[in-house]
Amino acid sequence: MKLDVLVTTAHPDDAEFSMSGTILKLLASGKKVGIVDFTRGELGTRGSPEIRDAETAEADKRLHLSARVNLGFRDGFFQYDEAHILKVVEILRHFRPEIVFSNPADDRHPDHGRAHNIVKDAIFLGGLVKVTTAYAGKPQDAWRPRRHFHYIQNDAHSPDFVVDITQQWEKKLEVLAAYDSQFNGEGFWEFHKARAITTGALIGVPYGEGFLTGGKALKIDDVTAL
Q1: Strands (DSSP E) along 14-85, which ranges?
Q2: What's the fold here for domain 5-225?
Q3: What is the rounded distance in angstroms from the CA atom of residue 67 to the CA atom of residue 34?
Q4: DSSP code, position 109
Q5: Nearest to residue 9, comparing CAs of 145, 122, 105, 101?
Q6: What is the pLDDT of residues 177-214, one digit of tens each?
Q7: What is the per-residue burial (b if ≥16 Cβ within 10 Å, else e) of 27-62?
Q8: What is the DSSP code (8-state) at residue 154?
Q9: In angstroms, rounded to a whole number, what is the distance separating the alpha carbons of residues 71 and 87?
């Protein structure tokens, strides 16, 4: 299946926490969206791998994703190395997304930055014909997505662009509620709502999700569309 958008994550629930409103909006517009989780989040303080697997499956039902894959990397210990990068190259060539979202380069959890760097290099290397990979035993053609954006997680960043998720807000809360073991700490819901309101205020809407471009300018063909 060719995807329009692929969201890569270090841990299950990274995508839902950071950009499930945007995912819901994309899916509602007819886009094909998938998530690739690197780990099962097995080192998380709350829950267990089995609980998190079940919660992820429930979140999938509420999102109605086009595809979801878990690469089984070791939570906390996966490495920035050739083997991990090539595994992500395989996934990119398999789904052939036009746009990729990843963890931010700088964030509290060290896995987030490593995941970001792996994805960044996999995007470049995946476009090189001399980098050979196979998926399910079949050789793959080179593929490089058009854009790589980064969602915002724990650390505060000034977003480069903001998506209006006002119409998706209530549904996003339903998706997040699937991760009961993770999103039940004191003040979580207040924090998440406050961030969405603050981000939305940047573009004059009730709720928003912010994203980073990694310092790269966005190409705009029609300024009147803005």
Answers
A1: 33-37, 67-70
A2: Rossmann fold (3.40.50)
A3: 5
A4: S
A5: 101
A6: 999 988 877 788 999 999 999 999 999 999 999 999 99
A7: beeeebbbbbbbbbbeebeebeeebbbebbeebbeb
A8: S
A9: 8
Q: What count of other Cβ atoms lies within 10 Å of the Cβ of residue 170?
A: 10
- Segment of 38-52, 85-99, 208-222 carrying the highest mean pLDDT: 85-99
Give the bridge partners for 209, in sequence order: 163
3-class DSSP state of 176: helix
Nearest of 35, 198, 184 to residue 103 by alpha carbon: 35
Distances from the Cα of 55 to the Cαs of 18, 170, 176, 179, in angstroms? Answer: 16, 18, 10, 5
CA 197 vs CA 78, 134, 168, 208: distances in Å? 34, 44, 13, 7
Q: Quick check: 122 and 88 in contact, CB under 8 A? A: yes
Enumerate the β-bridge partners of residue 210. Answer: 162
From residue 131, alpha-carbon distances to 21, 78, 185 in Å are: 35, 21, 44
Chain segment 89-120, per-residue pLDDT in tens: 999 999 999 999 999 999 989 999 999 999 99
Ordered DSSP codes for 181-221:
TTS-STTHHHHHHHHHHHHHHTTTSS-EEEEE-TTPPPP-S
Residue 219's pLDDT band (boundaries 50, 70, 90)? confident
pLDDT of residue 161: 96
